[in-house]
Amino acid sequence: METQAVLAGLGVGQLGSFNATRHIRSGRLVALLTQHVSEYGMIYIHYRHRTEQPLRVRTFIDFMVERMTGNRDFFLEESELRAGPPPKRKDKAKERG
């Protein structure tokens, strides 16, 4: 929902790279405050216990680790974050006036 609001121009949002990456690469979103981005993106999977873990939980964890590790579809390179200033947007008020 936050991603859709930001894409609609309703404000600024703090989006996870897994939500924002494709939009930044396509130019629909612009990364802001990139000097404050951590070098290491973290994604956590929380689960109840390590012992007596249902097979479906372990399978999901293994799937996510395999899917996310090193996958450029979900994470931006440093060069993509520091690509320069965002393009100027047209002022819709001036267009209407």
Automatic annotation (TrEMBL):
Region (Disordered): 76-97
Molecular functions (GO terms): DNA-binding transcription factor activity; sequence-specific DNA binding
InterPro entries: LysR-type_TF_proteobact-type, LysR_subst-bd
Pfam families membership: LysR_substrate (PF03466)
One annotated GO biological process: DNA-templated transcription
LysR substrate-binding domain residues: 4-68
Family: Belongs to the LysR transcriptional regulatory family.
Protein name per UniProt: LysR substrate binding domain-containing protein
Species this chain originates from: Paraburkholderia eburnea
